[in-house]
Structure formats: C-alpha cells, structure tokens
Amino acid sequence: MTQRKGEKPTISIQEHMAIDVCPGPIQPIKQISDYFPRYPRGLPPAVAYIGPLRSALSTTSAAASPAASTTGTERPNEDNPDWACAGASAPVQTSRRDEEPDVEGYDSDDSTTLGTLEFSLHYDQENNALHCTINKAKLPVPRYKKGLKPMDHNGLSDPYVKLHLLPGASKANKLRTKTLHNTLNPVWSETLTYYGITDEDMVRKTLRISVCDEDKFRHNEFIGETRIPLKKLKPNQVKNFNNCLEKQLPVNKTEDKSLEERGRIMISLKYNTQKSCLMVGIIRCAHLAAMDANGFSDPYVKTYLKPDENKKSKHKTAVKKKTLNPEFNEEFCYDIKYADLTKKTLEVTVWDYDIGKSNDFIGGVSLGINANGERLKHWFDCLKNKDKKIERWHTLTNELPGSLND
C-alpha cells in the first residue's frame, strides 16, 4: 500500500477484514458503522446471517471488546456490533413470529368460528305460510378477517343456505337459496316460503337452517347450522335472528313417523250463483311424498264429483315435472244446482306420472257432507258463502278415496 505525503491512508474493505482476522500494526476498526455507513446501528437481519462475515467480525470483536461478552443471564447490548452480527437472529425471529396470524386458533371449539347467520322468520297464520328471509352471513376468520369459514383452495367459499323442517327432513320440505360464488361475506336477501304450515306444525316442528359450500367436482361441504323450534314464533309477527352456526347435529331417526303425511294440497271452493256451478280450484301441493328413484315425483291432480253416474266429472291438471311442491293454479267448473251440493262429495287425488307403467298414487282427500273436521268445515263454508272463494289446506291420506282407480 503506497501513501503520498499529507494524504490519509486508504484501505479496501477486504484489507480491513484481513486486518481484523490477523492483527498487525494497524489497529482494527471497532465500529461496524465504519464498515457499512448505511447501517449505523448494525447490520440488517439479512446480512447478519452471512456466515464468513459474521464469523470474522465475531472473532475480532470478542478480542477487541471483552466487555461485549456475556455471562449467565446478562442480556447483550443491542448497540454492540457483536450483537448485531452474531446474536440478532433471536430477537428478529421472535418479532416475526409475533406478527404471524394465529391460523391454528381458527379451528378452535368456539362455535363462533363457524360463522354467524342473520335471518328472519314470519308465520302468516291466515295463509298457512312460513316465510324465512335469509339476509347474510359472516365470521371472524382468522382474527384479522371477517367472513365465512374458507372451504376452497383459494381461501374463499361458494355458500348457499338450505332449509329443512324437522321431524321428517327430506326433499319434500327442503328449500335452498341461490349460491354466491367466491365470498366469505355472502348477502342473499332472499325469502324462502313453506306453504301449508298449520298451527299444529308450529307447535311440533323445528326449522333447520344449514349453510353449505357448493362444489362442482365433489360433494358439497357443510359449514354450519342452526335450529329454531317454530313454537318460539308468534303468529303474524316477524322475528329477527343473528345466530352463531354450530357443528352438524344428528337427526333423530326414531321420531314418530306416523305424524308425517303424504303431503298437503290447497283447494279453493266457490259456488257461482250466476252460472249455477261449483268452481273447484287446485292451487298447489306441498311436501309431497317422493315416488321416483331420483327422490322427486311428477305430480298431477284429479278431481271427481261423486256420485257420478255418467262418469263425466273427472278433471285433471297438467303434470309438473320433478317436484314435491308443485304449483298448479288451475280451476274446474261443475254444473250443478245449489240444492244438489248437499248430496255430493268432492274427491281429490294426487298422482305421480310414470311413462310406460301405472301411475303411482300419492294421496287423496274427500270434501262433502260426509266428511269431518276441516274437510267438512270447508264444504259448509262454501255452501254458506255463495259467490265467495274459500281456500283451505288439507292433509292428504294414503287411502284411495272411494273406489277410484287411475
């Protein structure tokens, strides 16, 4: 190394490192900032992991600055270059670990981790309808996010909501919302309606609300559910809920099956005095029994006004494909004198249409002077209120009325 008179000595960083390792007449530079002016308080963590440089600096610094060594539990001085190069990894790792989200804590037993669901229920007693409005769902996942539990590889879900009435969960009483794709904060604002719900149902049935993730390539995944006993609802009042979703609960298969029906049908009756005829309306059916292998039926309805000596009283609705809750809205007219209605019986039967074989009987009901209960009351209300349409829900029985054959 050459030096002119009056000039300060210049030295490369490689020479300084060699001097630090092999002491000579030139004393080693003690401040790490002299090596790297950009880092006055020590090397950054990435540089601290460089093996050769760390080893050289640690060895030299230990000899040049004995006070930097520690004994027992004494904590090193973080301003010391030895600490910056040789021991900085420990606090850096601890700090980085504290900043990571607690992903493991997401799968805790806390029921709130499955999400929450906002919805409202309304029992329309006059129309025998239960309206369920599904509003939105949300959940803190993980601690710094909100939304449903992610079910897909992209960290999102394709959620939808389905409803069942218990006891007797089946396709006949299953309703579902549309699917919202790629979201953890779905907002449906969708109303699903059960028709043919009676006061008896409101006492003994429970509404099961499940949130699921739709998957096109495998089975849909269950996210969480909540159950509401319908007896908690007051007629004609809207009740709002914001419930935590729970893990899937088992369905009691030993429940009394005798309480379950073949389905229900909504019929309207009206005697038209101007035309001297009985108007019979087949409005809709609900919760029909499934007769096909696919879990559905292809229902249609037939009506007879008996006795029918000329066999001309048969009327038939259109067939509704693959449904257990068909809506018909068809009306038939029977020309008959008002006084003769007391001698007649209206027989209504529901069938499942099959191609190439006999159609399956689903259920039936008879209205007339010889009926009883709601069926008799419906008939008398029609007779007492001429020119007024009277609508009623009736439970289907599995006994074929009279001696009807399809």
Descriptive report:
This protein has helices at residues 13-21, 32-35, 45-48, 51-64, 81-87, 89-99, 199-204, 373-384, and strands spanning 116-124, 129-138, 159-166, 175-176, 187-195, 206-213, 221-229, 238-244, 264-272, 277-286, 299-306, 315-316, 327-335, 345-352, 360-368, 390-395. The N and C termini lie far apart (116 Å). Helix 4 runs antiparallel to helix 5 (81-87). It is α+β, with helices and mostly antiparallel strands and 406 residues long. The radius of gyration is 40 Å and the shape is elongated. The longest helix has 14 residues, at 51-64. The strands form four sheets. A four-stranded antiparallel beta sheet has the order 5-2-1-8, with no helix packed on it. Strands 4-3-6-7 form a four-stranded antiparallel beta sheet. It has eight helices and 16 strands.
What's the structural blueprint in terms of helices and strands?
Layout: H1 13-21, H2 32-35, H3 45-48, H4 51-64, H5 81-87, H6 89-99, E1 116-124, E2 129-138, E3 159-166, E4 175-176, E5 187-195, H7 199-204, E6 206-213, E7 221-229, E8 238-244, E9 264-272, E10 277-286, E11 299-306, E12 315-316, E13 327-335, E14 345-352, E15 360-368, H8 373-384, E16 390-395
Antiparallel strand pairs: 1-2, 1-8, 2-5, 3-4, 3-6, 6-7, 9-10, 9-16, 10-13, 11-12, 11-14, 14-15
Helix pairs in contact: 4-5
